[in-house]
Amino acid sequence: MIYLYLFGTCFHFIYVFMIIGNILNINESEGYQVTVIDKTSRMGDTKYWKDSFLHVKSYNGAYHQTKSLVDVCKDFINTEVSGNKGLTKVEKAMIAVRAKKALLENEILTLEQYTEEVFQDTKLIGKFNDYILKNGFENHIQNSGNVTIERKAIKKAKTKVETVKLDENFDISIHGGEYQIERGYDENAGMNYYKLFLKKKGRKKDRFIV
């Protein structure tokens, strides 16, 4: 039996039961699973009742594991990779592309496998490993060391480096094709340019210069 010790006004009683959707009588040894429904806009109240009063945390299933990996990788790319002056804009974009592609093409990944596939550089791999330790991501990994992938959790994996901003007139969204992009400088025009090679069925590659 679960007891909820109430204090304060009747509002507290109503609020607690408003955010608890259901208590599932399974996994007693590891802690009951609780569905939490929150329709209030008061984030401070939500955090207090969920974290400090109820002491509930996200269930470490496939969705939570995938979302945690997506979030920590997205934050790392938006900070460490985005500000890395040793990488070109296209290289930064391709890291974000590989990060999403690795999740979409696998059902189970080890963190080591994912990191090497995405970053492909020993210095970046080392920085990312330090970053995930600092942010406690390893707490979300299964005991086997694997991350079970849930594709529904990948929808918000977009990062700010996937779009290469050229100037006030042009942006390029990168979804792959790293070797179909060339960057150069036109001395006569005194301007930089990107050359894109496009594949079309039944035709030779087209060139498009931006």
Describe the structure.
By secondary structure, the chain is of the alpha+beta class. Helices cover 38% and strands 19% of the residues. It contains 6 helices and 9 strands, in the order αββαααβααββββββ. It has helices at residues 10-19, 43-53, 62-81, 89-104, 111-119, 122-134; strands at residues 20-24, 33-36, 108-110, 146-148, 163-165, 171-173, 181-186, 191-198, 206-209. A 3-stranded antiparallel β-sheet has the order 7-8-9, with no helix packed on it. Helix 3 crosses helix 6 and helix 4 packs antiparallel against helix 5 (111-119). The relative contact order is 0.11. Residues 1-18 have low confidence and may be disordered.
What's the arrangement of secondary structure elements?
Elements: H1 10-19, E1 20-24, E2 33-36, H2 43-53, H3 62-81, H4 89-104, E3 108-110, H5 111-119, H6 122-134, E4 146-148, E5 163-165, E6 171-173, E7 181-186, E8 191-198, E9 206-209
Antiparallel strand pairs: 1-2, 3-4, 5-6, 7-8, 8-9
Count of discrete alpha- or pi-helical segments spanning 4 or more residues: 6
The main sheet comes to:
3 strands, antiparallel
Low-confidence stretches: 1-18
Helicity level, as a percent range? 25-40%
Number of strands: 9
Strand order of the largest sheet: 7-8-9
* Mean pLDDT over all positions: 76
Could you spell the SSE succession in H and E letters?
A: HEEHHHEHHEEEEEE
Residues in β-strands, percent: 15-25%
Radius of gyration: 23 Å
Class by alpha and beta content: alpha+beta
Principal-axis shape:
elongated
Termini Cα gap: 67 Å
